[in-house]
Write the C-alpha cells for this entry.
Amino acid sequence: MAENLPEFDGVEHEAPELNVSLYQNITDMDRHSELRIEGLHPKIRTKVREFIKDAEKQGIVLRITSGFRTWEEQNKLFAQGRTAGGKRVTNAKGGQSWHNYGLALDIYPIISGKIVTNTASTLWKMIGEVGRWAGFEWGGDWAKFKDYPHFQYTGGLTIKNLQAGMMPEDC
C-alpha cells in the first residue's frame, strides 16, 4: 500500500486504492470517507478516524467529502466566483491550502441518509467541538471566512512552514 501514497509535494498524484482490509475493521465508516482518509498524510489518518468515531459516539455520522487536493484542483476551486462561475469556496490558491499537503479534510454530517449543508444548524457547533478535541483547527472558528466543513491539522506549523518542506511531527 505504501507505494500508492501521495508524496505531498504539490505534484499531481493518482488517488490511492482503498485498503479494503482496513475498512473491514471500521464498522460505521463508509467507503467514500475511508478512501479520502487513505489519501491524507499518513501521520493524520489515525487522528481523522478517531475524530469520526468520536462523532459517532455523539450520534453524529460524518462523511468526508474532500481530503488531499492537487494544486490544480485547488486552483480550480480558487477560480470559482472569480474567473469561473459559482460562489467563492476558498481563499487559498494551489500550494496555499492545507489540503495540498494532505493535512486537511472537509466533512459533512449525514442525517437520514442525506448530507446536511445547512451550516446554521447547531449540529455544526457540536462537530466543531469534537474536531477541536481531536486536535484539529476548525474552519468554523475563523473570523473572516467561516468554513464549517473544514478541519486541518497544523501541528503548530504555518502554511509557510509547509511550503518550506516542514511537516507536523507530533501526530
Notes: Residues 1-28 have pLDDT under 50 and may be disordered. The two ends are 20 Å apart (CA to CA). The longest strand covers residues 104-111. The beta strands are 61-66, 104-111, 114-115, 137-138, 150-152.
